[in-house]
Amino acid sequence: MDMRTQIIDKTVVVSSVEGNVQILLADGSSRPLQPGEILQPGARLNIADDAKLMLAPYDDKPTADNGVPAGTEMPPEGQSSSSVANHQQGSPEVSPEIAALQQSILQGVDPTKNFEASAAGGAPAAGGGGGIGGVAGASGNGGFVVIDRIGDATIAEAGFDTGYDTLIDQNVLQEDDLLPENQLDDQDESVVTQEDQAISGNVLDNSNNPDGPLDSSVISYSWGSNQGIAAGVESTLDGIGTLIINADGSYTFTPALNYTGPVPAVNYTVTDGDDTNDSTLTITITPVDEPVSLNGLQVEGGELVLDEAALPDGSAPDGAALTKSSTFTFNAADGVQSLTLGGVTLISNGQVLTTFPQGIPSPLGNQLLVTGVSYNPVTGVGSVTYSYTLNDNETHNKPANDGALTESFNVVLTDLDGDTTSAGLDVVVLDDVPTAVSDVNLTAASENNLVLNGNVITNDVQGADGAAVTAGTLSGTYGSLVLNANGTYTYTLNPNDGDFKALTGGGVGSEVFTYTLTDADGDVSTATLTLTIKNDDDGVTITNLTPKGEGGDAKVYEDDLLATRGANESAGSDSSKESTTVTGDFTISAPDGVKTLSVGGINIVVNGVVAGFPLSGVTTPLGNTLTITGYNPATGLVSYSYTLNDNEAHPTADGNNSLFEDFAVSLVDSDGDSASNTLSVQIVDDVPTAVSDVNLTVASENNLVLNGNVITNDVQGADGAAVTAGTLSGTYGSLVLNANGTYTYTLNPNDGDFKALTGGGVGSEVFTYTLTDADGDVSTATLTLTIKNDDDGVTITNLTPKGEGGDAKVYEDDLLATRGANESAGSDSSKESTTVTGDFTISAPDGVKTLSVGGINIVVNGVVAGFPLSGVTTPLGNTLTITGYNPATGLVSYSYTLNDNEAHPTADGNNSLFEDFAVSLVDSDGDSASNTLSVQIVDDVPTANDDADSATEGVFTPVTGNVITGAGTIGGTAGAGVDVMGADGAAISQVVSSNGNSDSNPAGGFTVTGLYGTLTMGLDGEYSYTLTAASVPVGASEVFTYTLKDGDGDTDPATLTINIAQDTRVPVLTIGNATVDEEGLPEGTAASGNSEIFNGSFTINTQGENLTTLTIGGQAYN
């Protein structure tokens, strides 16, 4: 219910409250408003839309000093007053309780302080403040309530006014002679009722008649066209309603059905027997939204029920039962805007469709027809009649629609003001179900009639939905049943089944299978199929075995054997190997059951018990392997494999023949019937095949021997094979042939037939050989060899031109000084040999006639010289020696020894020169070739190293040494300043001072004046340095550069540094002690002696310098 808020703008008193009216408190909470409460300005009320609230003015002005309330006025003459003067004490209207209260008030006592808090008290006043019950400043007991009535009459009167009447107290001012006035007063009324709801009340409830003489009453009333209607008489306005007002003021208004328009004002007259008063009753009708409804569409179990069984293919066909009819009703008091069924509009804007029957679409494909619609626009009531026809079976899905399927058509009703409702017209279609009927097959199954066929659905009732059998394969006691969806079946007896065999010969049993018939929507029915089983008395057979006279049952070939089957074995001759294991099978039949079954002594069944498979293979008498790989008791199929492990001994020299290995097969059934047969395996012999050979290598005087193997491309076969060995003589040589096929052919180049071929001539040798296998099978082929007499040239190879470094290399730096007088050693401190060796190769297939190197004859007229040949001195004075010659390989070996240094190009440094030797070759038929053997001789060069010596300032004696040997230098002969002269020898060729002075006299010594002295140096490096300067700067040195030059002009410079030390020498004076004796003086005791005289000397050492001054006793001596 909606609420509205009202704010009070002046002080009022609550006269009455109907419905939900809440006063809002200062803390935000609210409570119900009570009649009698005084509301201050600012109070807030929440009033429900359907609540009624009556408020009256309230005046609470304080009384003036003269006892008359301030601001009040005396009522005009002739008007009534609510003052005490109009109600004297002792009036019968005043009860003792009221009189006591009034007396307390006059005495200034608040009689409510001892009252319990009223329902309206105890809460803050509306609009704030600390008041109680919404009255600002009210006391905690809730205060007291003054009720004023709208109008000039006071409802409650006592001897004195307890209501703070707004009129002044006239107790002392009322004049006794005032004339009474008519005080009949009736107020207008306004009431509201709802559509279709009568309303009653009393128009005199707000009438005031304080002066009588009679009680107020209604005389008559008028409304609309009804005028002057006497009180107590009911009147009606068509389409609006009915009204009655009684004399006591009570009235009842009943609005016309569905009327919501205006109601004419009701004017009525009130009288008190003296005066009259006209008042108006205003009646307002509030429209009420009328609901709409559908009836007859809530039938439990559906409005219509039809059964698929009535369909032509149903279980109980009944055409009349396929159509059913019914009716539903509707009510829309506000008028029908639309009525639809299954999406089809039947009524639109109050208009009913005029064409019937009207088809309604059926999602299930059936037929819903509306056969008629009736509708009363005045009442809004109507009905719809319809029929439904089931055209076909439906899909009843489990579980929701297992037995019944509902097709629902939505019915929607909407009235003119938009109210709507809907319901479903439900048609229930009952499911039809199948019925399965048990079957018996009159034909018996036996080991001689293993299969039974039939159809279980033939005598079943499928029902309207159609039906199918649950297909599958079912295992029975004696066999299995394959059941198809269309009801057909195939039963297959297992004659090897233990239960079947237990029936024994002639025994009879039965199989019973339960099957399920299911229709299209899942309804099921079960029944049984019964079959008769009979065990006949049968014999036994062994079939599918072939006698060896017809080739046997399996065939293996020795030519498929592998060489890897054992040591020293050869592979079979078939190049594309097949397996040496063959498989096969045969069939046994023992309908009464197998008791024993064996093959080649291998037990497959013993006392009816089948062995596990595969059984382990057994070694046969011929050494091969027989394995029983399987046995199918159901079919009697026995499968086996046979493996040929090795070649067999076939009849000797009988070629590609066969032999057989046989295995006995034995069968006994459970009642003693027996049969036997033979499993034969044919083993085909393998034979060797010799294939002719051609050796593609040619035998010639240059290739005397040919080797090969004739058996390599032969096929030995599984039995292995060997060649007939021997030595065979040919036209040009001989062939040695071994059993393993290897051969060696040796050409005799001196044979007359070979020589007759002449140079370039070609011949051939053909040898026939025989290949024989282990069981005597033979094959022959040939070996063809090509023979050629070559005409060959000669070559000299493995010699290197000197432009590419030559064939050998020797170094002068390895020469020793001991090689001769006045020789110097080579510069290499770690000497290698000065002899080098080498070789080269000559080729003269037709034979060497002459061969020489550097004039040394190695072969002369085909005769080889003895070795080693003596060395010869070469043009450069060295030694060349031919150390060997191998006629078979053509290898010529030599050595070369460097005996002394050579004259290399002048001043060309560490260069080389070559010594060449001509090599000449001629073969027996005059072919010739020449080449050069070049030996490289690497030059040696000198190396000069810096030297140092020292002199002392002021010392002018020579400082000597040798810059080549290091003797006399600071480093000495073992120091870094020792020069290396090299193998060519070396001497000083020039000396240069750091001041630019130089001497390069090649004839002999060199003299160079330096900065501080003079250096003299010989060709051999000996030097002498004499200091000539009187003084030398501190730390001064003298540097001379000398050049060392070897025998072939190679040079190397170095320095000689003379470090000049400062002169630090001082002269040394040596004086001995002297003694004299006074006694030798003339006056002495020994005046005659010479003791007073001492003769002596002293020594002066100038440290090699000149003595310039000597002072003795102050006397200078120069």
Automatic annotation (TrEMBL):
User: Superkingdom of the source?
Assistant: Bacteria
- Check the record and name the Gene3D superfamilies matching this protein: 2.60.40.1200
Q: Which Pfam families match?
A: Big_9
Comp. bias intervals (Polar residues): 78-92, 190-210
Question: Annotated region Disordered: where?
Answer: 60-96, 180-211
In what ranges is there compositional bias, type Acidic residues? 180-189
Task: Spell out the NCBIfam families in the cross-references.
Answer: retention_LapA, VCBS_repeat
Q: What is this protein called?
A: Retention module-containing protein
Native organism is Aeromonas caviae (Aeromonas punctata)
